[in-house]
Every structure is written in structure tokens, then in C-alpha cells.
Specification:
Number of strands: 5
Keywords: Membrane, Transmembrane, Transmembrane helix
Structural class: alpha/beta
Distance between the termini: 110 Å
Shape: globular
Protein name: Lysophospholipase L1
Helix content: 40-55%
InterPro entries: SGNH_hydro, SGNH_hydro_sf
Number of domains: 1
GO molecular function: hydrolase activity, acting on ester bonds
CATH architecture: 3-Layer(aba) Sandwich
Organism: Salinimicrobium sediminis
CATH superfamily: SGNH hydrolase
């Protein structure tokens, strides 16, 4: 008896097999694509170009009279110059001080100079030391006070940081010098009155007031604190002024950063 074996496949079996193979191929490719995207995302980003902005040097405007210009002392020994140098030693980049001052100037003459010598410039620091010639010439304390208001208003305008960038330095007492010795008591009393006005007006504008007058009075016992003209401070005295105000000025600069 002969037996016949016939291999009968299900309809469409070959087609189903082809579809299955195609699906597997597509899924494998998708998996590879996902892996590539993950790997690409994990790669470190290229470093961006970073622009480092350098800070501009500090600009310092010193307003005043013979005490600011440093009458009878070498230029490097003027107190604004000494202050700038000490700030450099503290790591502060600062330009040479701009000094608007002249021996003999009163508040009125300083105001005129501020009007003609300064435009719309801005400074990080502005100092004011003025008034001894108002006293010396017998000008009234009332006029002194009135002028101070205008000087401080303008100083604030010149300051990059408003009143916070301005400071006042008290008037030294020249009555203890050989030049003023004959009227020591009178000079001292009058300068005390001018300094009270100076400090009061500064406070009205929230301007710091640094009192160097007690240092100036040490010259009565220490002639090395007086310049060779027997009237003005020596470079040594100006150093003592800077010792007194340095940390305060540093705080002003650091607060601005």
C-alpha cells in the first residue's frame, strides 16, 4: 500500500514570515537610533566662549585748596597721591588722582573752578577739603555754609556712586604752626566752628566726614609734622591722615564692586 505525504502550508504563511522579519528589522533600527541619541546627549558640551570683563580703574577727584595740592611738599607726598598709592598696595587699580585745588582758594573760588574745569565727568571717589581760607580771610561762617551746600551737591553729581562715593576731610588747625602761633587760640576756636559747619552740612547729604584736625594739632609738639614753610603739613603728617582714612575709603570702593 502506497502512502503519499503532502506538505500543506497554511495560507499566507510566507507573507506573515516576511512581515515579521521586517518588523524585527525596524525595531532593531529604532533601538540603535535611541542608543545613538542617548550617547550623543551624554557627550560633554563644547566649552562656550566666555568674555571676561575687566573692571575699569578707580577714578579719584580731589577738591580743595593748599592742603589738597600739598603746598611745600613733593608731589608724591600730597595726601591724595599717598592715598592712591596705598590703595594700589591693597590691590586696587586706580588712576592718578585728578586734583582741582590751589593755594589760597576759598569755597567760592573752588566752585568757580568746578564750573570751568569739570564737565560731565564721573569719578568713583570724590574728596572735599575746603574752608581754611574762608577763615583766614575773615569770611562769614554763614557764607561758608551756603557754599558748602553747592559744593556737596556738585560733588555728588560728579560721583559715580552718588553721596556714597564722596567724603569730606576736616580743616587742619594751622594755629599750632610757627606761622599761626601768635593767634593760636583764636585760630583754633574759629576753625572748630568752621569744622562743625563742615561736618553738619556733610551729614545733611549723608557724606562721610573724616576728622584729621586732632592729628594736625600734634604738630605743636612735633615739628616734623610741619613743612619747611612753617605753615603747611609735611608729607609725614599727610601719611598720618591717610592712615586714618584708608580703611574707610577701601570700604567705599569694595561696596561699589
Amino acid at each position: 500500500m502506497l502512502r503519499f505525504f503532502v506538505n500543506i502550508e497554511r495560507p499566507y504563511a510566507a507573507a506573515e514570515k516576511s512581515i515579521l522579519v521586517a518588523l524585527i528589522f525596524i525595531m532593531k533600527n529604532k533601538l540603535i537610533l535611541i542608543l545613538l541619541l542617548v550617547i550623543s546627549g551624554c557627550k560633554s558640551k563644547e566649552p562656550e566662549n566666555i568674555t571676561v570683563l575687566e573692571e575699569d580703574p578707580v577714578r579719584f577727584l580731589a577738591l580743595g585748596d593748599s592742603y589738597t595740592i600739598g603746598e611745600s611738599v613733593p608731589v608724591p607726598m600730597r595726601w591724595p597721591m599717598q592715598l592712591a598709592e596705598r590703595l594700589r598696595e591693597e590691590g586696587i587699580e586706580i588712576e592718578e588722582p585728578r586734583i582741582i585745588a590751589r593755594t589760597g582758594w576759598t569755597t567760592g573760588e573752588l566752585l568757580e573752578a568746578m564750573e570751568t574745569q569739570l564737565n560731565n565727568e564721573k569719578f568713583d571717589l570724590v574728596s572735599v577739603l575746603i574752608g581754611v581760607n574762608n577763615q583766614y580771610r575773615g569770611l562769614s561762617p554763614e557764607d561758608y555754609e551756603q557754599d558748602l551746600h553747592e559744593i556737596f551737591r556738585r560733588a555728588i553729581q560728579f560721583s559715580q556712586n552718588g553721596a556714597a562715593g564722596v567724603f569730606a576731610v576736616s580743616i587742619p588747625d594751622y594755629g599750632v604752626t610757627p606761622f599761626g602761633a601768635d593767634n593760636e587760640e583764636k585760630i583754633g576756636m574759629e576753625l572748630d566752628e568752621f569744622n562743625r559747619i563742615f561736618q553738619k552740612v556733610a551729614a545733611e547729604y549723608e557724606i562721610d566726614f573724616y576728622n584729621i584736625t586732632p592729628i594736625s594739632r600734634r604738630a605743636k609738639e612735633d615739628a616734623s609734622l610741619i613743612a619747611t614753610d612753617d605753615l603747611h603739613p609735611s608729607g609725614k603728617m599727610y601719611t598720618l591722615w591717610v592712615d586714618l582714612i584708608l580703611n574707610e575709603v577701601l570700604q567705599k570702593i569694595e561696596t561699589d564692586k
